[in-house]
Amino acid sequence: MAKNLQDTTTLHNGVKMPWFGLGVFKVEEGPELENAVKTAIKHGYRSIDTAAIYGNEEGVGRGIGEGLKEAGISREELFVTSKVWNADLGYESTLAAYEASLKKLNLEYLDLYLIHWPVEGKFKEAWRALETLYKEGQVKAIGVSNFHIHHLKELMKDAEIKPMVDQVEHHPRLTQKELQDFCKEQGIQFEAWSPLMQGQLLDNPVLKEIADKHHKSIAQVILRWDLQNGVVTIPKSTKEHRIVENASVFDFELTKEEMDLIDGLNQNHRVGPDPDNFDF
């Protein structure tokens, strides 16, 4: 169980990944983005998650460069994730996409590279490219995003290397327990995107009662629930007070009853596309 912001989970290949990070989905290039990344690093975050399709890798790279310098820490102390987009899911095109992401981020390697969506008929070739990057030591860990159980099974039929991470939509209205359990059995780290359901849970009465009891915000309760469930989480924010507040989840613990109450909010409700019906 994570005890502080720098605590890590060990992926099945031995690489250590922070339990908690900053997501930058839908944050546009510019000073706000760069400051958010710098601010997160300043306040102890050691994981930054972006993607090619977000169109903000250059700004993230600038924020990382300045943030590391200002915090006086080395690149090796930061865990950086990006993702290959659907249009690039071929073998050669995935290799080229990785190089393009590195260049934009102004980095020599990524800590984690993910296939963003399970495009049928394409993700296996992309995975072969990720395996090549991994075997050549160009990336520390490889994984997938938005993969259901059947996608994972299909991928692992031919894969030489099992995915180290599956990053999916996960929040109290979409707990994905079966997928969590499958990932746990397979030694694949389960990671949440949109952990706060894009703000749609911040007036939920069940969560409010739990939050009031602990003198915490609803967001903090949800993020704590993630951590106690063994889920890596990457909430997005560009405001300094929110970046600090989101990470202030290591000084309280939810009871089993509270965890069960939050689990009980599940409605299998998505705010993002269903990977089986996503119009690629």
From TrEMBL:
GO MF terms held by the record: oxidoreductase activity
Residues of the site described as Lowers pKa of active site Tyr: K83
Residues of the active site: Y54 (proton donor)
Residues that hold substrate according to the record: H116
Keyword Phosphoprotein carried by entry: no
Domain (NADP-dependent oxidoreductase): residue spans on this chain: 31-266
Statement: the UniProt record of this protein carries the keyword Oxidoreductase: yes
Keyword list, A-Z: Oxidoreductase
Family recorded in the similarity comment: Belongs to the aldo/keto reductase family.
Record protein name field: Aldo/keto reductase
Organism: Brevibacillus antibioticus
Lineage: Bacteria, Bacillati, Bacillota, Bacilli, Bacillales
